[in-house]
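Researcher: Hi, I'm a grad student and pretty new to this. My advisor asked me to get structures for two proteins we've been looking at. I'm not sure of the right format, so I'll just paste the first sequence and hope you can take it from there.
Model: That works fine. Here's the first sequence with its structure tokens right after it:
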Amino acid sequence: MGTTDTSRPNLDSILNERKKFDETKAGVKGLVDADLVDIIDDKDPSIHQGTVDRIKEACETWGFFQVVNHGIPLSVLEELKDGVKSSPALNWRDTFSCYLAPETPKPQDFPLICRNILLEYGKHMMNLGTLLFELMSQALGLNPNHLKDMDCAEGLIALCHYYPPCPQPELTLGTTKHSDNDFLTVLLQDHIGGLQVLHQDKWIDITPVPGALIVNVGDLLQLITNDRFKSVEHRVLANHVGPRISVACFFCSDYRSSSKLYGPMKELLSEDNPPKYRETTIADYIAYFAAKGLDGTSALTHYKI
């Protein structure tokens, strides 16, 4: 007959304790769960204010959050991922990029396999971006149109990423550590995952949520909010499984034709909160970001006062 090993903890007891801990919303799991934001258009002021408050907390502490009930049909998200999957990969990550606003390209300029869906997705994304900037303006205590009037949602660039399976993922990364050189990024990722964000010096896995979109603050939004909102550093791990598909949409002004200067917003400054950054054009910032490369350091440091 066998004997009972009384020195080994009871598995059911361990699982129950873990479940209780998760339900307290403490620790990393709770923090990630708390950043799932429902932004469906609801006219109830109390619900709306709760959404604004959650976005405010996420932008100030995490620099990212996930949104559900965003108004984009699930069929559109799935069709877009299928379109990006169509091309064979040459490296560990292939990328197809295009401008979707302010000037929408001619349909014939897109690959046939993703032509219609990209144009449709761009329209949905502009509507979502406008809503997000309204909520963020309110989270800063400003008029809902404030960030939109600064042309933060004028330009939109889509980067469609294809990450093939990697036989030795421990030797490489899908995308190295970086923050984004825009005001705001909205990311669609498939079920495979691999995205990590850096929070309090720890890499946190962002588990895919079906139908959800990931939103993260970019460098330029951190600059104009004078560090109120945080641009989050993130990376993508390589994976044995694949291919991994993601589509990142970058909101920025049309830097190709604009000489407008951007600096910390005067509405947020005070004697106790002086400007922390010098003014820059978007073109200058993007040029510096590109020249520096994804070397693991922030381009914002270059613009510190």
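Researcher: Oh nice, that was easy. Here's the second one.
Model: And its structure:
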Amino acid sequence: MTTTINLLPWREERRQQQQQEFIALLVLAVIVGGLIFWLWKGHVEQQVADQRARNNFIEQKTSELDKKISEIKDLKARRDELVARMKVIQDLQGNRPTIVYVFDQLARTLPDGVYYTSVERKGDLYTIQGVAESNNRISRLMRNLSNSAWFEDPALQKVEAQDEGSQANTFSLTVKQSSPNSKKEEKEQ
């Protein structure tokens, strides 16, 4: 039997082959790593882009809601103005007959020898200025106003003699308007 001996440098060939396999595996690993990194980077960029799109959408809807909120505030302000106007109109409609009764009572409570020169109203307070033949007639006017169902709390502000030759006096007084129902309730108590 003959044996053959291999005298070729097989160890070096084996090392070279292993080195080539190692380099090939290393290149393959770098390629696979690069591919995985590229895919991961693409995925992250897509998520960032999606989040930016969601943020833009939210900002757009927020600005739309802000516009609607300002419109609602404007509508509420308009509604409040209209309600206030309606209340004024209703008050005027409700007080319409009252002024007729007030003027009627002013005429009924006026004693002989007294006349009014002006009547001013501020809220429920009337300021009456006039001329009377004597102080007794002014006090009679105040009693009449006090006994009226439409007036209360007459208060004399001033009395002045008109001139030396005349007995007439000018006067100024205030009186509050009351509702006839409140006078009835007071009398019942």
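Researcher: Is there anything I should tell my advisor about the second?
Model: You could mention this: The CA atoms of residues 101 and 150 lie 8 Å apart.
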